[in-house]
Amino acid sequence: MRPEPHFAWKQCLVIRNDVKMSCGKKCAQIAHAAVSAFERADKEVRRNWLSEGQKKVVLKVEGERALFELKTIAEQAGIAAAIITDAGMTEIPPGTVTALGLGPAKSEELDRITGGLSLL
Predict the structure, then answer these.
(1) Nearest residue to 13 via CA among 113, 96, 89
(2) Strand-by-strand arrangement of the 81-85 sheet
(3) What is the pTM assigned to this prediction?
(4) Which sequence spans correspond to the domains of the chain?
(5) pLDDT in tens, 35-62
(6) Secondary element (H or E) of residue 100
(7) Cα–Cα dist 104/81, whole Å
(8) How buried is residue 70: exposed, middle or buried, by Cβ count under 10 Å (0-12/13-18/19+)?
(9) CATH homologous superfamily of domain 17-114?
């Protein structure tokens, strides 16, 4: 049995659990968050994360305010962060804040910010 790999880098993707969305819609919003946060990250951080296997963790919160609080904390720590606002073309009203992408960043830094959140 191979030992579990250690990932020094990861990305945390956070979805609002209080907004009624289909599974597919949630997946799309999380994908937007992943790409948007990645684009904001430092080039060296992106390279490290990509070379290690691109670990991602998907978490949930109960409300818009929680997303903005996490974003603020992450940005103060120097971690790339991206809030996702839906265009409203399918399931939810336009302008609905749905998700947050954090990182990639050092795993332990993200754990300090998101460690209390539940997995989706």
Answers:
(1) 113
(2) 81-85, 97-106, 9-16, 56-61, 118-119
(3) 0.95
(4) 17-114
(5) 999 999 999 999 999 999 999 999 999 9
(6) strand 97-106
(7) 9
(8) buried
(9) Bit1 (3.40.1490.10)
